[in-house]
Design a protein that fits this description.
The structure is a homotetramer of 198-residue chains. With 198 residues, chain A is mostly helical. Chain A is 79% helix and 0% strand. The first copy, chain A, has one domain. Chain A has ten helices and no strands. In chain A, helix 3 packs antiparallel against helix 5. Chains in contact: A-B, A-D, B-C, C-D. The interface between A and B is medium-sized, with 33 and 34 residues.
Chain lengths: 198, 198, 198, 198
Amino acid sequence: MGKGRLEAFSDGVLAIIITIMVLEIKVPHGDNPEDLKPLLPIFMSYILSFIYIGIYWNNHHHLMQVVNKVSGTVLWSNIHLLFWLSLVPFATAWMGENHFSKWPVILYGFILMMAGVAYYILAHCLTSIHGKDSTLAKALGKDRKGILSVVLYIAGIIASVFIHPWVGFTLYVVVAAIWFTPDRRIEKKIENNYREEQ
Amino acid sequence: MGKGRLEAFSDGVLAIIITIMVLEIKVPHGDNPEDLKPLLPIFMSYILSFIYIGIYWNNHHHLMQVVNKVSGTVLWSNIHLLFWLSLVPFATAWMGENHFSKWPVILYGFILMMAGVAYYILAHCLTSIHGKDSTLAKALGKDRKGILSVVLYIAGIIASVFIHPWVGFTLYVVVAAIWFTPDRRIEKKIENNYREEQ
Amino acid sequence: MGKGRLEAFSDGVLAIIITIMVLEIKVPHGDNPEDLKPLLPIFMSYILSFIYIGIYWNNHHHLMQVVNKVSGTVLWSNIHLLFWLSLVPFATAWMGENHFSKWPVILYGFILMMAGVAYYILAHCLTSIHGKDSTLAKALGKDRKGILSVVLYIAGIIASVFIHPWVGFTLYVVVAAIWFTPDRRIEKKIENNYREEQ
Amino acid sequence: MGKGRLEAFSDGVLAIIITIMVLEIKVPHGDNPEDLKPLLPIFMSYILSFIYIGIYWNNHHHLMQVVNKVSGTVLWSNIHLLFWLSLVPFATAWMGENHFSKWPVILYGFILMMAGVAYYILAHCLTSIHGKDSTLAKALGKDRKGILSVVLYIAGIIASVFIHPWVGFTLYVVVAAIWFTPDRRIEKKIENNYREEQ
């Protein structure tokens, strides 16, 4: 089974998610810079979510490059990932409109965490098809980055409950910063394999 | 005539349908967990519809894999299928906002049934081009799964009218569960053909 | 210059246009069949527009099959066509909400007419690159169908002004019926060329 | 790393941006031509933005044709460009609803300027991977057109602040007119290279 349509469908869904979020930034009635001020928190949460969807697209792209085949289970793991990402616009808007208050920040973190778990599952479904000696398995290794992210999301949620939602929000930004650099592991492995072949 | 653009267009439409449904989950004004409670039925219907569109994409993917050519009639059968699926976000929102009351559940079932019929028509248009001995025709066989689904949708609609909408809803979930496993028939046939060729 | 991205971009825009129209069918508050009644004219105009966008996608698909190259002018002719089609959801909603009254029906016809003209321009830009002896030029011939459509749209607009909008609406349905059959001219030409080559 | 998915994702995002802008043209309640009058400025800003997104798609298309490989940095430069373009629908709606008053016109110009800068960065990231002797580097040259655009946007913003927003708006139209012609530099270079090879 080819990976072409899985990529096309994922690109489509991610492109729509990243774009419809802008519909939540409602156009203000006044035409002064002050009329834009109330939109500032909404805009901030928009930026973070834009970067997050960008990260997922980027890593999805990298992941799929070392994939040769997909199965029914992989298709569903991918839809599962898209499901959690599809809730990002809702959580973004709720968080932005409530100026990063406690529960919206917790929900935002929860959805990111579930997306992180879903990505982990997808990566491991793919590894199990390709075998332990595949480029994919070697590139992912123990997937410390994936596990670390989920741990940081949980820490962020707990911090939002017991300390302050801004601590949680900061932790989500930290995870984004960690992933901002595209998965160099995969890029390196592709290069190495390429060299070995020659 | 190639199948590339039919796949691309279908992927696009399905990606948009699955994603715009989230726009119906309106962001609540309050920022407490209780403010999310009224969204629960809307969210439940969102999940079911997300899975349904996922199933259609998945099966469409499987179906197209054993297709070599398309005709004008196939293009229109496909647009007909997309038409009924395009109404899913509307029916989902109506059902969710009315807490799974009688008529919305009936409409939801009716639209799913029509999508099921449209998929059946599409599959049979494709079979008639490819001939009885094609991999496609063998894989689909008598299409018992497709016929069973339509029968269960009708049963769900009748149950919603005369017994209770939750009975109907449960039957729709049963159909989703039946289809959740991607069409193994096609996967098996591809494998078998591949083996026979070698 | 390849035609791949032109097709991909057009598929994307057409897929979005055909799908976002459903967002104009606002979910009613009540949960009875009577609550759906006011949506009937909106739904009727939705169906017609869905078919129209389907026709444009279908013919665009057929047209591009006999195209080997595109130029900057072709790219802009295509964007020009997409511009008029992008206004279809607006005109559809205005016409549906006003129960097919005079001016909305006129605007709807005007936008369809401009889309028809834009398609004509696109087809002729393509012909001028491919030359008079190309499969494309032969398949299109004098493009009587394209000219007839524009004439019928103008007739529909005039009829809406002086007789009754339903006469205009009926003429738009007639044009849709004419185009419903995908452009057999192109399909035939492809077949013939294929035979001649053998 | 291939450029296929970068093109697909960009096509998707640009197709959605260009299409959802139409959702900001709210359907009026009345059914007379006068009811459309208040939409005129909104429609005017829609046309300009449609052309701008068309220009970006067109130039992106041309740019990618002379690109052989992409890197992680390129992927992010591209997402950065899409970020600024994703704000175009918001700025378009604000400008249209406020009849091209001062601050909305400034914001619109600012977002166009940032998109121009982002495109410049993307082009130069690509050049740095491909080397100074690549077709890409030769085609772009000193990128005078890109620099001129940014200068004109800044001039438009300053003019909107100190003279009148219509002066600013006119300058944005001038930039659009400059770019309307697709990047002939690249088309020429491709032709030349092709000839030299033969």
